[in-house]
Amino acid sequence: MNFINQFFLLNDDKNAHESIPNWRISALRIILSSGMLLCLAIAFDTFNSALQLNYLWIIALTIGFTSVLFLLLLASKRFYHLCAYILLVALVLASLAINLSLPDLGLAKIGSMLMFVCPSIALMLLGHRVATCFALLNIVPFYMILHDIDLSQYTDIDKQLPDASWYITGVVFLFFNICVPLAVARTIVAAKRLNKATLSSNAYLKSKNELYRTFFAESTIPKIIVDDLGKITDANQQAIDLLKLPKPLKSETLLLSSVMPNIKTCNAGKQEQILHFNNTYQRVVHQQLTDANFCVYEFHDCSAEQSIKGNLAAMEQENRRLRYRDTQTQLPNRDWFELQCDRLIAKYRKGFYVVVAQSANNDYLNIKFGNHNSQAITKTAFKRLRNNIEGPLLCAHIGPGKIAFILGSLNETDLYSALPKIKHTLDEDYNLLGIKSSQSFLFGIAHCPEHGDASCKVVAHAIEALKLANTNDVFSLYDQTNSQSFLEKYEISMLLDEALQQGELTVYYQPKVTASGQCIGLEALARWHSPILGTVSPAVFIPIAEEYRMISRLTDLVIQKVCSQINQWTQQGLNCVPVAINISLIDFTQTDFMSKLVKYLADFTVSPKQIELELTETSLEANQAHSLMLMKTLQAWGFTISVDDFGVGYSNIARLADYPINKLKLDRSLISQVTSSARQQSLVKAIHNMCEELDIKCVSEGVETAEQVSIMADMGCKEFQGFYFSKPMTPEQFFAHVSKKGLKFEHQDSLIKA
Fold first, then answer.
1. Distance from C-alpha of 346 to C-alpha of 343, rounded to nearest angstrom
2. Is 50 exceeded by the pLDDT of residue 752?
3. Largest CB tally within 10 Å, which of 9, 77, 535, 737?
4. Is 0.70 surpassed by the pTM of this model?
């Protein structure tokens, strides 16, 4: 069935021939195939009779016409018109052959009627002109039939087949009733399909017309249609009002360029541009129509948008100006400084030094006076540098308390000759809140291009060098080795930060005992065993925690673990002694320190009398009023207050008389020399006597020999701490010792490993 459909081209969806519709080729093939079968049937049926009667001309005619129709059928698609003409000629010849070969005039007249179908076939296959020609040609057989003209006399044929009447009548009958009707039926089917497609197209065009009305004529957006010559062919009412177009439109003379001279011509694809006309801004969107030489232009009012853009541009200009100013000090900032450095790098081939200066006690100033007030020193320092005629080229405030400047055309010798003068200028007294304040500035130095070929690198290296500056070495030149040490310290800080988040640090406990070894207290000491670094000494990670502002989190972790441990020991039946916890300067100055401390005690049901807080002298001096008030509050709650590491640096017992201190821990540096220096013994004894007068208990820290214990006991010291009695122990080791020997720590017990 599929073969028949394909061969006879019964589908009209897609033409098999470029210029000829399927239904015409299909009708031709139907006529040819049905006529060929008819001729073939006659050839088979007459073959024996004709052969017996020696009518060879009949065999030749039937086989000849069958062959011709078969060849036409094969060539019907490729040579359609030729095959159609030959078919019509073959019908004429067939009619003529019947008249020439039949002596029976009645049958010859029937054969002549075969030509009468030619106009119908010609009309179907070739059109009305060819059909008209064949209609005129049919006058000949019509005339012959009316006048009984016999053509057989010209062939001298006087005999015919016995059943000739059946064949002639049957051929005409079947051709008129089967061959031609089938072709006509195919034509009618094609006509119905065409009519259906036409109706569908009309419906489609109607919907398109509705779309046209909706999206063009009745659209609220101004739209125009322009042809490929730039002429406006159509416009909706909104576009006419906007562009002030004439009514009616005269597309012959109305060019788009005459209405809008600055508009772009329409190219392939969708484009847009913004134009200003008639006191408005219009976004013009234009797009080439598919398979058409027309372009549609849409106009969208974007006046408000352009106004906003203008305001934003002005704001951006202002932000660009503010970008290079520090918001608090209004001084040139780091972005501005690095931009100027980049310009110098591009033009200044001799190289230059970038110097970053900062007050040595910048953190102290921020804590004591607040960040806003301490910035007054930064502003004053900036003005001093700018007013120094022989000073730096550029100055900027690049970070909290940090001032950067450039020194050019200097060798290293001249650099270290110029920097002391600048330091002297910066170190002069400052007036802060009506109080004279002396400062000592530190300097970090980096050279361009030796220490970096980009401004950001040079400035960063100068800041790194500044972090390594101190009171003994105020001018720190960037060094790769020192920088590596700084990076290592930074990496340790990152690991410490993670360790604090994970609660990775542990707490060891070192006993505080009497001269006889009776434990009367413990000191909580943080220990860190990193999975990456291994065991890290407190002397390493505690200064890093203070420098990178993690000391408060470390203190919180220690307090939490101590309170949890006290609770656990209490539940295990251990009679707990007070536990001392070290408190840093940053901890003591935090406003929420007291609330957090009380919360931890409440969480684990720990009494304040079980906690001793060990402070440093600097924590007391940072903010005397705040320190005094906080210490009184802590003592009122029941906490014991002690001062740790007394004797390190500049210490004054008289200053401590102003504070409600319970204990004073003498540093190991004092204790270590009492056995070898009479002068040191006298100093320690004097400190102890003053503490007795002030009702402050003295604690000897770091005792390692029996002689040290004996001398300090003779002076009246009643509390000791050191390796002589015990090293720091884990909670499990301490519990095991107490379970076995009680709270007694004699010299031999100091062999317990930490």
1. 5
2. no
3. 9
4. no
Give CA–CA dist 473/478, Å, rounded: 13
Q: Are 200 and 56 in contact (CB under 8 A)?
A: no
Residue reference for tokens 């008249």: 99
Most confident of 193-207, 582-596, 671-685, 703-717: 703-717
Is 88 within 8 Å of 122 (Cβ atoms)? yes
Q: How far apart are CA 578 and CA 590, in angstroms?
A: 24
The larger pLDDT score, comparing residue 136 to residue 308, is at: 136
Give the orientation angle of helix 480-502 with respect to helix 551-571, to 10 degrees: 40
Tokens of 451: 């220490």
Q: Report the b/e string of 357-390 with b at 16+ CB within 10 A.
A: bbbebbbebbbbbeeeebbbbbbbbbebbeeeee
With cut-offs at 50, 70 and 90, classify the pLDDT of residue 116. confident
SS (H, E, C) 281-301: EEEEEEEECCCCCEEEEEEEE
**Quick check: 719 pLDDT over 70?**
yes
Cα separation, 559 vs 597, in Å, equals 8
Confidence of residue 604 (pLDDT cuts 50, 70, 90): very high
Q: Is the pLDDT of residue 274 over 90?
A: no
Q: What distances in angstroms separate CA 160 from CA 44, 118, 519, one per listed residue?
A: 17, 26, 152
Least confident of 187-196, 199-208, 339-348: 199-208
- Asked if 241 contacts 219 with a C-beta cutoff of 8 angstroms, the reply is no
| Cβ–Cβ under 8 Å, residues 39 and 69 | yes
pLDDT at position 390: 65
Examine the pLDDT at 520 and tell me if it is beyond 90: yes
How far is 126 from 88, CA to CA, in rounded Å?
10
pLDDT per position as a tens digit, 646-705: 766 555 666 677 788 899 888 888 888 888 888 888 888 888 888 888 888 999 999 999
Q: Bridge partners of 720? A: 513, 700
Residue written as token pair 């001309």: 57
From residue 694, give the alpha-carbon distance in Å to each of 516, 630, 664: 25, 20, 11
Beta strands per DSSP E along 595-639: 611-615
Angle between helices 731-741 and 551-571 (to 10 degrees): 30
- Token reading at 200: 């569908």
Q: What is the DSSP letter of 21?
A: -
Q: Is the pLDDT of residue 202 over 80?
A: no
675 in Cβ contact with 711 (< 8 Å)? yes
Sheet architecture: strand order including 441-448 = 395-399, 402-408, 352-359, 441-448, 475-477
User: Which range is most confident: 283-292, 480-489, 722-731, 739-748?
Assistant: 722-731
Concatenated DSSP letters of 342-371: HHHHHH-TT-EEEEEEEETTHHHHHHHH-H
Closest alpha carbon to 675 in 637, 707, 643, 627: 707
As a whole number of angstroms, the distance between CA 440 and CA 358 comes to 8
Q: Strands of 232-235's sheet, edge to edge?
A: 232-235, 223-227, 294-301, 280-288, 270-277
| Token code pair at residue 194 | 């065409």
> Has residue 33 got a pLDDT over 90?
no
Alpha carbon distance 720, 712 (integer Å):
9
How many other C-beta atoms are found inside a 10 Å radius of the C-beta of residue 569?
18
Q: Is the peptide bond before 248 cis (omega within 30 degrees of 0)?
A: yes
Give the mean pLDDT of the chain: 82
Could you read off the pLDDT of 341-368 as tens digits, one per residue? 888 877 766 788 899 999 887 777 777 7
Sign of the four-CA dihedral 406, 409, 410, 411: positive
What the block records as the tokens of 408 is: 């050019």
Asked if residue 461 lies in contact with residue 338, where contact means CB atoms within 8 angstroms, the answer is no
Q: State the distance between the two ends of the chain, measured CA to CA, in whole angstroms.
A: 99
DSSP strand pairing (352-359 vs 402-408): antiparallel
∠ Cα 621 622 623 (to 5°)? 95
| CA angle centred on 151, ends 145 and 153, rounded to 5° | 135
Rounded CA separation 568/562 (Å): 10
